[in-house]
Amino acid sequence: MLVIVGTVRLPPEKLGEARPAMASMIAASRNEPGCIEYSYAQDVLDAGLIHVTEVWRDRADLDAHFRSAHIARWRESWAALGIGERKLVVYEAAEARPV
Length: 99
Known about the structure:
By secondary structure, this protein is an alpha+beta fold. 37% of the residues lie in helices and 31% in strands. The chain is built from three helices and four strands; from the N terminus they run E-H-E-E-H-H-E. It has helices at residues 15-30, 59-66, 69-81; strands at residues 2-9, 35-42, 49-56, 86-92. Strands 2-3-1-4 form a four-stranded antiparallel beta sheet.
C-alpha cells in the first residue's frame, strides 16, 4: 500500500475557482482501481494551504493514476489557479491499522 501525504498552495482568493476542479479531481480519482482514499482539505489557519491525502493499493495503480486524463486536466489548471508550491511525499505501508 502507498500513502501520499502533503500540501498544495494556491492564492486564497482562487479557492472558489479551484473548488470545482478539485472536486472533479477527487471524484475521478476515488473511482480509479486501487484508490483506497483520496482527499483534499483546506488548512484551518492558512486559507491557501490544501492538505492532500491519498492511499493506493500498489505502485501500478498509482502509476495508472498519474497517466489518467483527469490528472492531466488538473495539472493543466495549475497555472490559472496559481498553484505553484507542491510538497507531496509517498510512503510505503505494510497494512492499515487504527491508531
